[in-house]
Design a protein that fits this description.
The protein is α/β, with parallel strands linked by helices. It folds into two domains: 2-283, Alpha-Beta Barrel (TIM Barrel), CATH 3.20.20; 288-408, putative tagatose 6-phosphate kinase domain like (GI Alpha 1, domain 2-like), CATH 1.10.400.20. The chain is built from 14 helices and ten strands. The strands form two sheets. It has an eight-stranded parallel β-barrel, surrounded by eight helices. The chain has a two-stranded antiparallel ribbon with strand order 7-8. β3 (86-93), α4 (103-119) and β4 form a beta-alpha-beta unit. α5 packs across α6 (192-208).
């Protein structure tokens, strides 16, 4: 429910160490592991879908918003996770998927997109119109972005059975959906004046669009704290925080920051982000990266498995998901296909050949249980043992444990760890 999000923001703004992880993934085991961990900790969870992942045409997952909501609820039931503690988020909702077209047509499709998300029960709505359409700059200015965001907010307000339950995220200093900065690029934190200008542009646009009441539903501003990752490197949170950026929030009750691309940060970064006013921490590729790490570790001790070979074949047969992201010689590209931090391999796990290979590996691993210890950390092994005690099979327990180890630092709320 949206109330969970606003309660966390209120706690953060009151000085408590409070933030929510926002899991942006459509992988069923990632979602199950995340929900089981959140449930064990007694914490809420945000689950997000992006506009290129889930839309009215199916996106790359083949799911429309209502399909994704039902899919997540089924996993919640499997995970014994109370959906009352689940927030559904729509990320990068705007014209991005259709930006090769003229703006008018792209925005018409974006209107249908947000309406479908709201009808499906998504309450956390990231209005992102920052990327230009055909004939426009790659990034449009604040005013243009805000006017288009307000156009979509009007649709959301008209579509929702109870608009008061909606929570809007706005902001233009975000990476493109599914993308990240290239290797060697600098990441510049958002200046407080720029954040203020973005917020005011959206307030003005909401007024001009005839929805002044919806300004109170803008609860988060997506800005850059200085964290990012590329295929080969992580830009870690700068030391010392950013008191000036936090101070920008002071006049705005109920408003927080949202951080994107927080994957692979040091555990200490998440409480530091919370102290800076970031009450929402998005994560995705780091969790499927952990999934891949666990599977390849299991494969290494199972002589009958050939999972990396299967995945290499799938990626070479359809290079569209990685080719523009990975560069270098043939050996470098091969390594990045499997181990790159951008984790473009995640687009291939749902293919039938991959599913079959993973299932065969999971079945075979019982014969090699004694050989697993060198391939997993002591913490992952201990967590896997706990999961086995609760009824999980050996292979699934290790895979879920690896995912949970990656997600665990995100639960930084006071008292979250009992």
């Amino acid at each position: 429910m949206s109330d969970l999000l606003r309660q966390t923001i209120k706690a953060n703004r009151s000085g408590q160490l409070a933030a929510l992880p926002s899991v942006c993934s459509a992988h069923p085991l990632v979602l199950e592991a995340s929900m089981r961990l959140a449930g064990a900790l007694g914490q809420p969870l945000i689950v997000e879908a992006t506009s290129n992942q889930v839309n009215q045409f199916g996106g790359y997952t083949g799911m429309k918003p209502a399909d994704f909501a039902a899919f997540v609820k089924d996993i919640a039931a499997l995970s014994d996770f109370d959906t009352a503690n689940l927030v559904f988020g729509g990320d990068h909702l705007g014209p991005q998927v259709w930006r090769a077209s003229p703006a008018a047509g792209a925005m018409a499709k974006a209107e249908t997109l947000v309406a479908d998300y709201v009808r499906a029960g998504f309450t956390k709505i990231h209005l992102d119109c920052s990327e230009g359409c055909q004939g426009e700059p790659a990034q449009v200015d604040d005013v243009t972005s805000a006017v288009r965001a307000a156009q979509l907010a009007v649709i959301c307000e008209q579509t929702a059975a109870n608009p008061a339950k909606l929570s809007y995220m706005v902001g233009t200093e975000v990476p493109p959906p599914g993308g990240a900065h290239g290797d060697g690029e600098e990441v510049t934190p958002t200046a407080p004046a720029a954040a203020e200008a973005t917020l005011q542009a959206h307030f003005n646009a909401f007024d001009a669009a005839g929805i002044p009441q919806a300004k109170a539903r803008i609860v988060a501003l997506v800005v850059q704290p200085g964290v990012e990752f590329s295929p080969t490197e992580v830009h870690h949170l700068p030391k010392g925080g950013n008191a000036a950026l936090r101070a920008m929030l002071t006049p705005y009750e109920g408003l927080c920051f949202e951080a994107h691309s927080t994957d692979y940060q040091h555990p200490s970064a998440y409480p530091a982000l919370a102290e800076m006013g970031f009450a929402i921490h998005k994560v995705g590729p780091a969790l499927t990266h952990a999934y891949r790490q666990a599977l390849y570790a299991l494969d290494a001790v199972c002589p009958s498995s050939n999972l990396p070979v299967v995945m290499e074949g799938l990626m070479l047969a359809n290079p569209a998901h990685w080719q523009s992201h990975y560069h270098g010689d043939a050996a470098t590209q091969k390594k990045l296909r499997h181990m790159g931090l951008a984790d473009r391999i995640r687009y291939y796990w749902a293919q039938p050949e991959a599913i079959e290979a993973v299932e065969a590996l999971m079945i075979s691993i019982d014969k090699h249980a004694a050989n697993l210890a060198p391939y997993f950390s002591a913490e992952t092994t201990a967590r896997a043992a706990e999961l086995q005690t609760s009824g999980q099979a050996l292979a699934k327990a290790f895979v879920m444990a690896e995912i949970q180890q990656a997600l665990m630092p995100y639960f930084i709320s006071e008292g979250a760890h009992g």
